[in-house]
Each structure stands twice: as C-alpha cells, then as structure tokens.
Write a structure and sequence with these properties.
single chain; alpha+beta; five-stranded antiparallel beta sheet; 12 strands
C-alpha cells in the first residue's frame, strides 16, 4: 500500500514532523482548508492563532521533551484556514523509526461544536441574568408596596393607594416582559424609542423626570429594566426628586443621565457595577443588571464624577433611522 497516498486521502488533516519539528508532510485535507503546503510552512507554530500561541508553544515543547502526559489531549487550538482561523482538536503520536523520532499530528475541525458551546454558554448566562432581573425588580416592587401600605396604616390616603396599584401593575408588566425576554436573544432585537421607555420606566416613582431629545435603539424589553433600575436607585438610595435625561445621536446614541440626589460616594465609584457589591439598603444587583443589559445591546455605561447627584452616560449603536 502507498501509505503517503493513504494519508493524502484521509478526511482529517494530517501533518508529519521530524525530530526537530520541521514539517515533512501536510496532507491534501490541510492544503484544501488552509492553502498551506509542507514547502510553505517552515515553522508549525506560524499556523496557530496569536492568542493561542503561548499554549501551543508550551504543549509542543512538552511533546518534544517526551512529557506528552502533561499536555491536554486532544489539544484544542485555533489554527489557520483560508480567510481566518478555525478551531481544531489535535491528536498526536510519537513514532520512532531508524533511531529517529517523528511526530504524527491529526487535526479535526470542531469549529461548529465550539461555536455551539459558546452559544449555549451565552444563553445560560442570559437566563441567569433574567433570573437576577426578576428577583431584584420584584423585590423592589414589593418594597414599594410595603412602604406605602405602612403609610396607609396611619390613615387612608388616595395617593398612597394609587402608588400601590401602580406598583402592582408594574409587577405584572415585569413578569410579562421577562416571559417575552425568555424567548429573545441578542439576535432578536428591535427598535425602542428611548423617550417612551424612560417615561414608562418612571411610572410608580415619586420623582420628576425631564427628558430632552430622543432616539431609537436596538434592544429588547430589558431596556425598560435599565432605566427602571437607574431611576429606582436615584429615588431610593439617592433621595432624588428630579432626574434629567439628555439624548443625542451622532456617531452613536448618547444618553446623559443626571439626578439631584446625594450621589455615589467617591470611594465606591469603581465598584458600583460589580455583581454583589452593595451599599446600605441595596441588594448589589441593580447596576450590575444595568451594565449587563446595556452590553447585551452593544452599548456601554459609565459613571461620571459629579459634585452633586449621580451622573451616568450610556451609549448605544446608532440606528440609521433616528426619531
């Protein structure tokens, strides 16, 4: 049997290296996928994605030193393909012949599997985020209802009763939104009018909200939770009575959010978006949820220094048709 022809026809990529890791053979499968040949590859490491190069160098070094047991098997690396890189599982065998060592490497394209795993991980993270939103926002709503219910114990007041009804209505709407979010992903975004979103989010809070300008952004119903959490923090933790929001659209959509509350202590400004970080009376989830949601829409949020009140700047990708 012509073994070289046999290797050439294998449906998996095959490379044979000598004891100095010089390339002796790259079969036709590798040539088809990458456009590389044994003549054009002087160093096998040149085929590895730059980010995976340290891992590859360490693995190949151990294989050459006879320490194969210390290398993960199969080895997972991104390697060259025409127009980019692909994920490959790499299996190998060390063969001795005529007193010399040769290395047989077999490459299996697992790009689709890795991409599917990444999508599953992203979906699991999305589900965890939805659970965080639901638990955090429902707790806020129940706290609001409890506060107004205590006030009613001191005497009936139609305003307090109306606030309770608004909070209950908001809770029902939140559950509906979460149900809709369960079936949506970052791939199923639609335009949302920011002025409408902010005005809806402000309902149920005893605070004046002034919105200047307008724009639409690609999002899902989680965009309501972004501004509900910002407004809720301003009122509950900052004691704000007025919130100003300025919306502008140029290269991106910019949203400048400012309240007249007590602001955020300077010693914690670097930690406010961390999961679980909390100040007195907070759960440590609100701004973490805001950041994760904004990022899921391709945007960013940052906290800016202010002499008084809290100031956030949110940015979103620009829509061609702005309102």
């Amino acid at each position: 049997m012509n073994w070289k022809k046999f290797l050439e026809e294998l449906p998996a990529g095959v490379a044979i290296l000598d004891e100095n890791f010089n390339v002796l053979l790259l079969n036709s499968r590798i040539a088809e996928k990458t456009g590389l040949t044994a003549e054009t590859v002087k160093n096998p490491l040149q085929t590895v994605h730059p980010e995976d190069l340290p891992k590859a160098m360490e693995a190949f070094g151990k294989i050459r030193a006879g320490k194969e047991d210390e290398v993960e098997y199969p080895l997972l690396l991104r390697v060259v393909r025409k127009g980019g890189y692909q994920w490959n599982e790499i299996r190998w065998k060390v063969v001795e012949d005529g007193g010399k060592r040769y290395y047989l490497f077999v490459f299996t394209d697992v790009t689709q599997r890795i991409e599917m795993q990444k999508r599953i991980e992203d979906l699991l993270e999305y589900v965890r985020l939805l659970n965080s939103i639901l638990r955090h926002d429902i707790l806020n709503i129940l706290t609001t209802i409890s506060s107004y219910a205590e006030l009613l114990e001191d005497g009936f007041n139609r305003k307090f009763l109306d606030k309770i009804k608004e909070a209950v209505s908001k809770g029902v709407e939140l559950i509906k939104k979460i149900r809709e979010l369960e079936t949506s992903t970052s791939e199923s975004l639609s335009p949302f009018n920011l002025r409408d979103v902010i005005e809806e989010a402000a309902k149920g809070y005893d605070v004046e909200v002034i919105v200047e300008g307008n724009a639409s952004v690609l999002a899902n119903d989680g965009i309501y939770s972004v501004f509900e959490n910002l407004i809720g923090n301003s009122v509950k933790h900052g004691g704000a009575s007025r919130i100003e929001v300025k919306i502008e659209a140029s290269d991106r959509v910019y949203v400048a959010y400012r309240d007249d509350g007590t602001g955020i202590p300077i010693n914690v400004v670097d930690r406010v978006f961390e999961k679980g970080f909390s100040t007195a009376g907070s759960t440590g989830m609100g701004l973490f949820i805001v950041k994760k949601l904004v990022e899921s829409f391709g945007g960013e949020i940052r906290l800016e220094n202010s002499n008084r009140g809290a100031r956030f700047v949110l940015t979103f990708p620009l829509l061609e048709n702005r309102t």
